[in-house]
Every structure is written in C-alpha cells, then in structure tokens.
Queue: 2 jobs
Job 1
Amino acid sequence: MRAAEAYNREHKEAGRRNGPLGHVGLEVLRELYRLVDYKSGRLDPSIDFLMRKLRRSRDAVVRALSALKRHGFLHWIRRTEPTDNPGAGPQVRQISNAYWFDLPAKAKALVGMILGRGTPTPDDHAQREADDAAAVEAMLAQAGPEAAARFIAGDSEMGDLLARCGRLLESSASPPSGLNPA
C-alpha cells in the first residue's frame, strides 16, 4: 500500500489534484487488501459491494479499478456462469470478477527500499567481496585442474568426475618428446 501511495505521489503532475491512481484508486486498493483471503488468495468482490463499502459511485469505482489496472497494481479476469435459459436469450451471465495484485517495476523498487533490500551495499563490503574473489581466482590459477575441480564441485560424484577429468588433462598436457607442440 505504501508503494502505491509513493508511486501516486511520485507520478503526480504539477498543478493536478491527484496522481495517476487518484485518492479513490488508493481507497479501492486499500479495501481490496482488506478483503483478500490470504490463505486461499481469493479476491472477488462485486463492484456493487465496493460501491456500498466505500460510499462511492459506480463510475468512481470503475475508474479507480481501471487506473489500478493501467498502472500495473491490479489485474482481473471476467467470470460468467450459465443461466440455463431455454431457447433464445443469453446463456451466461456475468458474476463478480476475480482480482489479483501485481506491482509495476518502479513500485517493486520502492518496496525493496521500504523493506531495506534496495539499499546499496557498503563500499567496504563490496571491496571485501572483490578481494575474496581475486584471492580465489589466484588460488585456482596455481592449483592443478584436479584440485580446481574438487574446489568448484566439492566432495560429490560430480566432483569425482571432474577431478578424474583434471587428472587426465594433466597427464596428457605434456607433448610426447621430439614432437613440435606448435
């Protein structure tokens, strides 16, 4: 919800009363977050229910849902059920939509920052990781192929196979005497 509010503020045009989601859009999104069954994921309120709950007109709720969908915060699928009408006439009627939440890329970045995952790594930590990677590279360059394979694959069946390949490479690395390697 905080990401949607921040997105709405960030993309608000100067001189406009509302951002792209609008205050009604934020109210609808807040209500949908309250209504969702987090165990099953079920979220299927009717527009009439949202109108009564939020005390907003049908047009306001429909526009809010449309804005939420257009900006990537909400998606839905239209659902129908059979009417069992004999003969002519509609054979299905629409029932409430099934909704699900999503986040646009910019809002995902905001959520990461809010939860502390979007903060940059400290310089000393980045330098320590680079130093460690350089030390491993230097060690692997000095080690033979068998030892390098054991280090990379560990003590597993794959490690055994790679170590055997390393031994074979080492044994065939020197050219037979008297032959030009070039």
Job 2
Amino acid sequence: MAYVVSRPGGAWELRESRATSRGPRSRTLASFRTLTAEVVEHARERSEGGLTRSEARAAAHRAGAPVALDAPDAAAATLIRELDRGRAPRPALLRALAAVLSDEGRPGIRTSSVGPAEPGEAISANARAAASWASAAPVEHGAALRDLLLLADRLPHPARTGAIGFPPLPAASA
C-alpha cells in the first residue's frame, strides 16, 4: 500500500508499507516537493507491490501534496491562460493547433467527444476561468485566497436583534 507523508521544509515522501513476519514495515520509494511523472516512475521502479501511477497520484492528493499536471494538461492550461491574457501563438502555429484540435491533423486524438456539441457553441465562462487557473502558480492561488479572506473580513455583519437563543439542556438523570 502506498501513502504520502509530509516532511519538514515542504518536502514529501512517497512510501510503501508491507506486512512481514516481524510486523508491518515501511520504506521510502521517493522524496519530492511536487509529485511529477518522473518521481512516480522512480517510485514504481523501487516498489515491490506494483505501484501504479493512479495510486501514487491518489495518495498524494489524499495527503495534500502538490501534484504536477501531466504534460498535455499543463500545456493546454498554459495556452488557455496566455490566450486569456491576449497573447496568441504565431498564425501558423494557431492554424496547426486548430487543425489538430478539429481532428484533421491527428486521427489518434478524438476531441469531438469532449468538445462543444455544435461548431459555434462556446464553453461556459466558469469552465474557461477554471481552465485558465489550472496553470496558475501556487503563489497566485495564495494571493487570490488572501484577497478573498480580506474581502470577507470587510463585509458587514448582519445586525442581531434580541438575545441569542440556545436550546434547553435536558436535566441530567442520576
């Protein structure tokens, strides 16, 4: 069984436990700051229990460890973020990307099953914003959270009228 533990200084360990005649034992498969595909492969090579990529990622998510996006997801999120900021690729690359995404250029990739139903249909604003934030750095996520918490502190509290009522406590039986 694989699990992830936090270490001092922002480090994490991907560990594996196994039963032995002397009781349960655990060993470190890999140490990391962000779980990447390379870290998972290193851990899979050292694992005795047949660790899978999905098990390693699930263990990291359960522990709250940072998990890097896979290369295609990271590239897509970064491209969406750059497009939202008004920075587009060169026209030749944009045409090639459009061809690949419309299934003309890569028969192995079927975007028609995940894309909009109609050619002119757009994704929702919420979906686009979420996709743009997928490539944001943790520092940007932290700054946005801090801003939201400061905003929540400044919102007016509703005025209370009268005393706060508490339900009666039942008499303790002896």
